[in-house]
Amino acid sequence: MIPPAESLLRYDNPVLITKSTDRKSPKGRPLRVSPQLPATSGPVPPPPKPISASTDGPKQENEEILNAILPPREWLEGNQLWVQQVSSTPCTRADVIRLEEQQDIKLQQRQARETGICPVRRELYSQCFDELIRQVTINCAERGLLLLRVRDEIQMTIAAYQTLYESSVAFGMRKALQAEQGKADMEKTISDLEDEKQDLRKQLNEQIAKCDAIEKRETERRQMEEKKHTEEIQFLKRTNQQLKTQLEGIITPKK
What are all long-range contacts of 124-133, with beta carbons under 8 Å and residues at least 24 apart? Predict the structure, then answer.
């Protein structure tokens, strides 16, 4: 396993965790061996004064809260397990200024984008915010817990926006595919309608030609009927005139 990369969050020196594979007797207890003091001929110094519980208790509680907020990181190097806890050393004003400078340097080195969505910029700002939580928690655990809630809320909001963005991208892709499919179907429909339009236009031209032929034929027939009717009228007029003449010749007495 590769050791974790350098982070803006301050950690203590890594500690090697060794695991014993020897079987211990269930009744046995581990022996506590106190370090041997070197033999001196001088007087024995007085034992150190015990630290009061009033100062050790809150410090230990803050460290426990700090480890709960920012858990230690672990990695394997060969067959050895290394653990690195978050530093519990209070920070100074110079440390905050150095943190800002390191953040600017890392933003430039990793070529983070200044605007828009950038995972690199988000990661570095998350590390910087974790470092600020660490610094605040050392002095006041309650402020650290409150900042933890703020950090979790921000991460939850970002995750919600990321999910919404991914779902919107997927929705857009589906709509684009549907639009492409609909475009192909619409183009096919347009082509079919164009073919149908050509067929209807052809049928229309045929019907117009038939109508013209029928009108021409009917016109010729009407003209022929009119001519025939006119000839019949003329024939009847001539016949009538002849009959009238004959009738007058019969009626008129001869002298």
Answer: 124/8, 126/155, 127/7, 127/8, 127/9, 128/8, 128/99, 128/103, 130/8, 130/9, 130/70, 131/8, 131/9, 131/10, 131/99, 133/69, 133/70
For residue 51, the number of C-alpha atoms closer than 13 Å in the C-beta half-sphere is 8
Tokens encoding 30: 């581990």
Which amino acid type is present at position 255? Answer: K
Query: 17 forms bridges with which residues in the sheet?
Result: 81
HSE-CB at 84 with a 13 A cutoff on CA atoms is 15
Instruction: Flag residues of the chain having pLDDT under 70.
Output: 1-5, 18-59, 253-255
SS3 content of the chain, % helix, strand, coil (to 5): 65, 5, 30
Other residues' Cβ atoms within 10 Å of the Cβ of residue 123: 15
**Are 12 and 134 in contact, with CB atoms under 8 Å apart?**
no
CA 252 to chain centre: 122
Tell me which residue of 183, 1, 7, 135 sits closest to 80, measured CA to CA: 1
Cα angle vertex 116, ends 112, 118, to 5°? 40
Q: What SS3 state is found at 11?
A: strand
Residues found in the chain: 255
Whole-prediction pTM: 0.53
